[in-house]
Structures are given as C-alpha cells and as structure tokens.
Predict the structure of Cytochrome P450.
Amino acid sequence: MPLPTGPKTSATVQMLNWVFRPMTYMEECAKVYGDIFTLKLQRNLPPLIFIHSPEAMQEVLTNDTKELEAPGDLNDIFEYLLGKNSVISQSGKEHQRQRQLLMPPLHGERMRTYADVINEVTEKAINKQQFNQPWNARTVSQEITLSVMMQAVFGLYEGERAEKIQKLLCEIIEVGSAAWRVALLYFPALQNAIGISQILKLQDRRQELADQLLYQEIQARRENPDPSRTDILSLLMAARDEDGQPMSDVELRDELMTLLVAGHETTATAIAWALYWIHKLPQVRQKLLQELDSLGENPDVNAIFKLPYLTAVCNETLRIYPVGMLTFPRRVKKPITLCGHELEPGSVVMGSIYLTHHREDIYPNSKQFNPERFLEKQFSPYEFLPFGGGARRCIGLAFAQFEMKLALAKILTNWELELVNQSEIKPKRRGLVTGPDRPIQMVIKNRRQQKAQILEAVTI
Ligand code: HEM
C-alpha cells in the first residue's frame, strides 16, 4: 500500500527542515499535501505519517489498544534525559500503573494545596526584579514553576540541596533545548564532532551531579521515613508492585526527573507566552484586570480558577503556540484507514497539535490571538488539544492550568508590567518542545493597587 504523499526532497533536507523549522515545515506540507502527509527523516527510520484533522486525531488518540499503540520504545528520544523507567517510556499495564501512581497528587484537593506555594514563589520571583529594569519573562516564570514542582515532588523548594537541583536542572534544560542538541538525537554520528563532544561531556557532568543530588534525597528519605509526608516522592517510595516490590532507586530517579522536567518547562513557557500576549494587546489586559478586580481582595483560588475570560486567555495562549507541537507517536499494529489511506502495520503516526490549532476551518484567522473565540464556541477535545489525548494525555493538565491561572492572577493584580519591545515574537523549537524565538523582555512600571483600594483611597 503506498504511503500518503509528502515532500520528494532527500531525507537529509527533510530532517534539517524538521529540526530547524518544524512548525513552518509542517504548515508548508499541510498546504501542499492536505490532512495527511509523510516525512522521511532518515533512511533507517520508519517514515512518519502526520495527521491533524480532528476526526483523524480522535481515531488515533482513542484507539490505543486496537489498531494503534503508543509504545514506550517510540519515546526513546527522551531517554538521554529521563532514563528508561520514566512513565513516558512505558507501555501497557506498567504505563497504566505508573500513571495511577502519579495522577492523584496532581489533581483535586491535593493540587489545591499548592495555591499558597504558587502565590508565595510568584511574589518572590517578581519582587526580585528592579523597577524599570528588563527581565526575561521565561526565566522568571521558570523560577516559579520549578519551585512549585519541587514542592509537589519533594515537599520542599528551599534549602541547599533543593536549590542545587533547581540550578542544575535549568542548565541541563538550557543545553538540551538547542536545535543542534535535537539534531544529535537524530544524527548520533555527529556526536564525535570536535566541540560538540566537549559540550556533551559538560552536559553529562551536570546530569551526573543532578542524579547524585536526587539519589541523596532518596537516601535521606529511606533513612528518615516520615509517613505523614504527602509529596510525590514519598508516595512513590511507599508504592508496591504486584509482587510487593518497591521501586528501585533508578526507577525513582527516572520518575522524579520526568516530573521535574515535563512539569516545569512546559508551564513556564505557557506563562511567559500569556504575559507576552496580555501585554501586547491592551484590550486583553484591560478585560482581564476588570474580571480579576471583580473578585475583590484576596480572592478564593476556586473563583480564580473558574474565571471565564482568564480561562479563555490561557486556552488561546496554549492554542496559538502549543508548547507540545505533537502528540506522542503511535505505531500501527493492524491495518487502519486514516484520511482515506490504508496504513500498514509498523507505520508511525504523529498527531500535529500545532496544525490542528491552526486549521482555518476550526479557528478562522488562526494567527490572531483572540481569546473571545473560546467564549463564543466550545471546541471538542480533538479540535483543542494542547495536552494531547487518550491513554497518554498529559498527567499534569489540571496542575498546569491551575498554576498558570494563579500565577497570572497574582502578577496582573499586583504589578503593572510592560513589554520592553512591541515587535512580534514567534515560536521556535526548544529541544523537543517549543518556546519564544527571542527573550520576552518585560519591565515593572509600578506596584498596582486594585480598583477597590483605589476607590477607597479616593473616598477617604
Ligand atoms: C502547559 C503545560 C503543559 C503542556 C502544554 C503539556 C503537554 C503535554 C503533551 C502534548 C503531552 C503528550 C500527550 C499525548 O501524546 O497525547 C504530555 C505528556 C505528559 N506530560 Fe505534560 N504538559 C504540560 C504540563 C505538564 C506538567 C505540569 C506535568 C507534571 C506535573 C506534565 C507531565 C507529563 C507527563 C508525565 C506526560 C507523559 C504521559 C504519559 O506518557 O502517559 N506535563 N504533556
């Protein structure tokens, strides 16, 4: 059966486009080849079949046990950072078991207990900035989300070991985000190139140090067990498999690394993009402030979480430049028909979240930031899917939305910020996710008083 069509250029040209300009390349392909197309990135790798229509997305994401599967081995690309035992690298029963272990602390009442930490670390991170002095929105939001993740995972975000882990993680992610680092994942032969091997050694060293600190933390817990702790590490250490065996130190390390990496960089980027759009479009900021001020002083976290316009702004932020461009890959197990093409077993299907979010038939003027579209229409889970879907849907979905809303509410109601430069910022690849193509520079103009306080001051 012939594969869906795609570019006729050599595998190397396709790979370079994919590594260095993935979003534009996907758009160019969709324009020429439509709802389904094939990229051949390497001669010895299976061709990748890209889909983006909501119908095909639904078929792929809800079909995990029948014709398609999302096997952990297709996620090997994450192994250099997250290890072999991460939930991302598991399949079948083990994958389900790990998800069940990790989900509860990231949802419901347990999740809401992080509200104070989110407020506290947001206040601290913004207060550190000088008035009228530029700062990088992504660096500051990363400081917030990493501290919050440390609290959720370890139950601590202060202290020497915690601070060292945070610093190393930021450095590891920064190096891993470069496009050349992604190219190495696809072209391992390049690793011997002069210069690159030195940088890789340095990265390995940082990784080793981070691992040592994680193992020290695990060891400290083993020596001083405290059954009252509710952080994720404590829960993982208490868990037993079907044979009554606890997780090994290496398994624990891989899971911790997964949560720390997947759980902070993504949300940090989303918060930074939201700050960019809110301050680029004055009418958006004004509407948001009106909504936030209507809650009065010290609003309830649940009330913030439910605000319709804040929700619409967060959704539109995640729609226009989704931090995850793609769902995880799925491998065809039995022949399946997608967008009129019969796919053979062994084919690998990629859901392009980015392309779905830019389909003009779903999102007219898709390049425009327009939160109102989320107030006017309810999109299906296969039209709007920044967190993927199905058995592999992001386990941090609720947590990320909660954190994003609380951090933005805190910043907007307390400070008057401005963008240093109004020129357009575009998305680009940052490792295996996306981010802004240059720093989003902001300044604090003033400490803001809420409307109620301003009115009070005027009447006195
Ligand atoms: C705005 C923030 C975030 C975005 C946009 C995002 C996006 C995604 C996407 C697109 C996937 C792949 C889903 C699929 O293939 O169907 C994913 C998976 C995952 N995410 Fe997130 N994520 C975010 C925040 C978080 C947070 C806060 C955590 C942890 C606390 C987290 C942990 C994970 C994990 C562990 C997986 C793998 C799930 C599995 O294999 O079963 N993410 N995320």
Summary: The mean pLDDT is 87. The two ends are 79 Å apart (CA to CA). Residues 320 and 367 are 7 Å apart (CA to CA).
